[in-house]
């Protein structure tokens, strides 16, 4: 895996920024590392829910096709 610098611009309100800064201080991380960590957790959670949703949809389709036969 190649690690490189990616520049992005995100807009977050001051309340959320302050909470992330406090979490970073509490966990002895920089703001950017904490933000990256939170984004990674959010992405992984999203993918788990996304996969689960499609697994459930496949099961529903299988059951419906079995009932039609």
Provide keyphrases for this structure.
mainly alpha; 69 residues; single chain
Helical content (DSSP H or I, runs of 4+): over 70%
Overall number of strands: 0
Strand content: under 5%
3D shape: elongated
* Topology pattern, helix = H, strand = E: HH
Measured on Cα atoms, how large is the radius of gyration?
A: 20 Å
N-to-C terminal Cα separation, in Å? 48 Å
Largest sheet: none
Helix/strand structural class: mainly alpha
pLDDT < 50 runs, ≥5 residues: none
Number of helices: 2
**Mean model confidence by pLDDT:** 87
Walk me through what this model shows.
The chain has 69 residues and is mainly alpha-helical. 74% of the residues lie in helices and 0% in strands. The chain has 2 helices and no strands. The radius of gyration is 20 Å and the shape is elongated. The chain starts with 13 loop residues before the first helix and ends with a helix.
Q: How is the topology of this model organized?
A:
Elements: H1 14-26, H2 31-68
In short:
With 69 residues, this protein is mainly α.
């Amino acid at each position: 895996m190649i690690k490189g610098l990616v520049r992005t611009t995100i807009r977050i309100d001051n309340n959320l920024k302050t909470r992330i800064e406090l979490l970073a201080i509490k966990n002895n991380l920089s703001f950017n590392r904490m933000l990256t960590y939170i984004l990674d957790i959010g992405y992984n959670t999203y993918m788990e829910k996304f996969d689960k949703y499609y697994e459930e949809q496949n099961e529903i389709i299988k059951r419906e096709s079995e009932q039609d036969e």
